[in-house]
User: Which sequence fits this backbone?
């Protein structure tokens, strides 16, 4: 797991520490950095489509251990956060400080025992290597302050920032980080395990006085008895089945019938869901077929743009010739390429971007490659203008391509594009959590 997140999986989440409520809005393109890695604005397109499949998870909420620790961390933090110390929809400094220390202790315990899924391993590894050098006592700092943080911005890039939105979307927590009744029910077995003998030394360390403490990480007990307690399955079930997406329960039922591929990524799952004879409920099957159709357009356009970014100073005739040589104008290459109609429709911004993509798909079907390239450059320029930055690639006054940033990629042959899959649709996290939730049951069988 990396220490930072380049993309936020929800189009835009209003979820600050003291936010009065939790809600999703349209993606605000102006909030993307000028160096964004999404120069065509495709995140807005695939994320709104994916939200009807998986309503609560994000592209980074892929580990059940982290959900357990987030839920338990908020339950433990609430014990020091008296009602009179907090506004109804905010978290007190004491609440966050306790959660922060708990997250660090849990991370060190997991890191030291080799448990997967730890957020912050890069910084922790560096501190682990340094702690015994130059006369140091072999301990690490835990608690408040820069010396204790396991991430550059632990609040935004750790459990507090990354996993909270999914818990709210599942109905287990409020925007204030207080658990709902369902959250309290699901956290109960983890609290019981936390209070058991196996976690007593861990709990004592959490309660140690002072804003910071120094501990040798190897003295922390294994956190496995907590993470592997019976509540694990119940929490996983809730995260997988209670996301409130239109099709998520059907997806969960299909997975429960053995429908998930044993291996492979999102493409393999969508291919299986889209098969008419695979036992998939018709609404889910039809939607998956539309996702496949949309993805083909996104893949083709993204591949073309990656190629254009390496064509600085090249005239359009030369660029079009490369497309032709790669089969992009061959008979049947794109005869069925189109952006499907999703009903009910998505946001206005989604519809505008889909209209541009539909036009580009039409140019490819009609083998009008120069018009396709022009439309692609126009889409990119519009996306970057919304963000307040210049287009990475465009046309110069002489009509040649002009590239100001980014690296180009070889243009794939048209016939190979069906094997490509670029976007997640939040299914990657769903599959990862499913496999973690039911791994023990499969191994026992």
Assistant:
């Amino acid at each position: 797991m990396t220490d930072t997140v380049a993309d936020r999986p929800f189009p835009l989440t209003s979820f600050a520490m003291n936010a009065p409520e939790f809600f999703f809005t349209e993606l605000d393109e102006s909030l993307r950095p000028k160096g964004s890695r999404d120069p065509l604005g495709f995140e807005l397109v695939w994320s709104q489509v994916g939200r009807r499949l998986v309503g609560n998870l994000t592209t980074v909420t892929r580990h059940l251990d982290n959900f357990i620790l987030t839920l338990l961390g908020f339950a433990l933090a609430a014990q020091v956060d008296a009602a009179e110390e907090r506004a109804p929809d905010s978290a007190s400094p004491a609440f966050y400080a306790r959660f922060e220390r708990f997250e660090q202790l849990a991370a060190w315990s997991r890191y030291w025992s080799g448990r997967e899924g730890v957020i912050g391993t890069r910084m922790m590894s560096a501190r682990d290597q340094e702690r015994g050098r130059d006369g140091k006592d072999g301990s690490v700092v835990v608690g408040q302050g820069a010396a204790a943080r396991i991430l550059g911005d632990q609040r935004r890039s750790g459990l507090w920032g990354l996993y909270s939105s999914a818990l709210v979307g599942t109905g287990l927590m409020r925007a204030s980080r207080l658990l709902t009744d369902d959250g309290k029910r699901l956290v109960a077995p983890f609290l019981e395990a936390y209070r058991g003998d196996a976690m007593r030394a861990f709990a004592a360390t959490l309660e140690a006085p002072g804003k910071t403490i120094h501990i040798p990480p190897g003295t922390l007990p294994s956190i496995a008895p907590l993470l592997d307690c019976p509540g694990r399955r119940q929490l996983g079930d809730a995260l997988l089945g209670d996301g409130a997406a239109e099709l998520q329960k059907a997806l969960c039922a299909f997975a429960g019938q053995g429908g998930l591929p044993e291996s492979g990524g999102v493409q393999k799952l969508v291919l299986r869901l889209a098969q008419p004879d695979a036992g998939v409920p018709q609404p889910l099957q039809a939607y998956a077929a539309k996702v496949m159709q949309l993805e083909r357009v996104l893949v083709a356009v993204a591949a073309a743009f990656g190629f254009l970014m390496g064509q600085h100073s090249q005239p359009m005739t030369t660029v079009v010739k490369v497309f032709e040589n790669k089969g992009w104008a061959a008979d049947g290459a794109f005869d069925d390429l189109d952006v499907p109609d999703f009903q009910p429709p998505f946001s206005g911004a989604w519809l505008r971007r889909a209209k541009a993509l539909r036009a580009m798909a039409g140019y490819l079907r009609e083998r009008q490659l120069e018009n396709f390239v022009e439309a692609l450059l126009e889409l990119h320029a519009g996306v970057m203008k919304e963000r307040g930055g210049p287009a990475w690639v465009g046309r110069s006054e002489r009509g040649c391509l002009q590239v100001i940033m980014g690296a180009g990629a070889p243009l794939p042959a048209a016939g190979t594009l069906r094997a490509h899959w670029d976007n997640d649709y939040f299914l990657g996290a769903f599959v990862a959590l499913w496999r973690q939730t039911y791994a023990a049951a499969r191994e026992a069988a």
